[in-house]
């Protein structure tokens, strides 16, 4: 598990070449160290409320909204960034806790751009904790790594057996409409995810390192000609996972520009749904369709199509 | 190589890496069966590219775990072996991938226990048999390699060779290719494996990594599909 990233000894191996001092504000200095702590709980009326929170710009959360007609008691929260894209030397951290029985839909206000970086890198550390019978849909907008972007994320998911977490991440190849179009021109994406129980029992772990200057990810076996990669992790009780596994189609359709596969995670703790695509709208639809199936199985309601302006 | 190998160690390495070594590797295709069916692998060039990507993926997962297990065996740190096994097993996406590594790991251990007669390997076998540890193939191979005095570089080559030979062996049975083509692809892997080792040797077990989503989707298609010549 990555611990700090603030002292050289703690820098992960793959980031060692990107730890020069910026000519601007130092890495992790004021305004570059976004922090968000969100604590949700269910009130006496059965409504999920944002009970406690702490925020430090550029990460911002305004308030919980209740716009989901299917689940009106579910708190819907958008995470915003006042700083625009993630830039050189940004260090962000998010801690999200869902207490017993609470339900939350979490997303971002827009796509997260990782700006061009010259000296250092940007990072995101997340801890998402779900207590018994809680339910979280974490469906952020895509991450767009611009040329020479360097980004490392470390996500720790701590989930009780009776809780359900849908955790989705979508990565684009770059800015499609910038100049001639960026395609895997970033320097590095290092993405770690680890899921465990409250007692520390490891459920699964994965680490992706995508480093186009060292090895192109475009070839067969990796992106295989696709431009978008989405990774959806579902942690849920076994009976639910079994039903979702059975009803979810695995397919490979390059002519449609879309492919998806689903696998069971170790310890029968859930599923992993991976998507390759060319159109971010279609990938998003597939993620939402999958999430809707999960929501129907867990909550008895569908996830409606996203707002037209999103 | 930093270490010289004695003739007995070379002989053990050849035996362990031989496709005739009865651990059941022939029953798997490392997803090639689906890749062939989906026309992703349809000629020599695509077979070579697919093989190289799978080797790369193994190099930073199985390869790292095997190296860690070898060193932990030499140092007699059993807990470190168990941790490597747990982390590697939890990194395997899909039932078939986990089944493959466990079956091959168990067979390897069963074969080697009476040959090596070593307390650590006996404990390892006992822990696998009682489901106290997963017994992944790479970690089991790391233990056996240490007990056979096989050096790190040689073990690493064996892991990568194994990943490639499974794909190429399956290619002979499920694609239009020839022995000459598959042997050429295998032969050309040498410099790649040398470069991969230089990087992998610096990684600790927490830094195992891979990025092969198309491969993972092929694994899923195979797992959910009904047509199969191979177990994966």
Describe this structure in words.
The complex is a heterodimer of chains A (310) and B (232). Chain A has 310 residues and is mainly beta. Chain A has one domain (32-228, 280-299). Chain A has helices spanning 238-247, 280-299, and strands at residues 35-42, 48-56, 59-60, 75-81, 91-98, 103-108, 112-114, 122-130, 135-138, 143-145, 150-159, 164-172, 188-196, 202-210, 228-235, 251-253, 258-264, 270-277. In chain A, the strands form three sheets. Chain A has a nine-stranded mixed β-sheet with strand order 3-4-6-9-12-15-18-17-16, with helices on one face. A seven-stranded mixed β-sheet of chain A has the order 2-1-5-8-11-13-14, with no helix packed on it. Chain A has a two-stranded parallel sheet with strand order 7-10. Chain A is globular and about 50 Å long. By secondary structure, chain B is mainly alpha-helical. Chain B has a single domain, classed as Urease accessory protein UreF, CATH 1.10.4190.10. Chain B has helices spanning 7-17, 32-37, 44-59, 62-74, 78-91, 95-116, 119-129, 137-147, 152-174, 179-200, 213-224. In chain B, α4 (62-74) packs antiparallel against α5 (78-91) and α6 packs parallel to α8 (137-147). Chain A binds chain B through residues 1-2, 12-14, 190, 202-210, 215, 217, 219-224, 226, 229, 231, 250-252, 259-267, 272, 274, 276, and chain B through 35, 38, 40-41, 46, 49-50, 53-54, 56-57, 60, 86-87, 89-95, 98, 202-203, 206-221, 223-224.
